[in-house]
Amino acid sequence: MAGQTPGEAVRIARRLLKLAASGTLATLGEDGAPFASLVTVAATPAGEPLLLLSDLALHTRNLKRDPRVSLLLAAPGGEGGDPLAGARLSLSGTIAPDDDDGNRRRFLRRHKEAAGYAGFGDFHLYRISVTGGHLVAGFGRIVELGRNALITSAG
Question: Cβ distance 8 to 14 under 8 Å?
Fold first, then answer.
């Protein structure tokens, strides 16, 4: 990546994983077509994305049929107010329910507004097992990152 060391790219990507509060989740529809929706996001201590999703949502029905997903995270603002100039990270992986109470508490600490509906029977916590990512850290600053660069072994 021009003008940036591999270590800097990893730091930018991990920072986005830890700090992003929302993102765009892409799932595959019944006909195989992509479907994107806005979701709120938190992260495990290792950096794996956590999402609280309703069974009623189309994206949840899609991921139950096919767990392959992509998640786009973007840093707020961008350089000089241009959102395309700021850092963004597209993650690929698979998604599955996460029954870890610590992760649920972590998500709810991040998204206090979710406490009002998190207890509804149709809401469940999910974790994305990241296989890789595509980081754009500004114009011309692009790098592919594998799971080991994105997700730490310990929180």
Answer: no
